[in-house]
Amino acid sequence: MGQTGRLFEAALGTFSQQKSDNRPSSRTKPVNFPWLRSGTTTSVDAEVRAACRDGADGCRVELSGRITIDSSPDLQTLLLRRVESPDCRTLTVDLYDVAYIDTSGLAMLMELLRAARLQAKDLRLSGLRERPRYLLEATRLLHLFQEVDREGRP
Which residues are paired to 90 by β-bridges? Predict the structure, then answer.
């Protein structure tokens, strides 16, 4: 795992609140990271960026760049956090600016779909173009996902 991956993983973890005498407290609290809030953009990896937004129709994550074996583990962590959020009943993943996706990216999407279904939540894909669409069609996985346009309409 690269340095970016380790930093991202550490940032997603739960950290102990420190007492005034610098001893860890017995209770742990998750740290609120501003880049996980709605309306923020973060570099998941050198190859992919994610912009998270919350709206009336659910959560939306707009991805850009290339989803490869190097970026998909960190991206999966981010997307699973979004789908596990109690405020997110529907997660729309916008792939419009994704130029390339490999099989590890497909596996990440399948795991995300599984997690959403286990929690009785909806996962929608939007903005499928060229390589991502071709790969989902060629592997016959596209029919498993609900596809919507960029405005969220079926």
Answer: 122
Residue 106, token pair as written in the block: 């497909």
pTM of the model: 0.71
**What are the boundaries of each domain within the chain?**
38-148
Select from 15, 77, 83 the least CA-distant residue to 45. Answer: 77
- How does pLDDT run across 15-51, given as a tens digit for each residue? 223 333 444 333 333 333 333 444 566 666 678 999 9
- For residue 40, list its beta bridge partners: 52
Say how many Å lie between the first and final Cα of the chain, rounded: 37
In whole angstroms, what is the distance from residue 8 CA to residue 20 CA? 27
What CATH topology corresponds to 38-148?
A: Transcription Regulator spoIIAA (3.30.750)
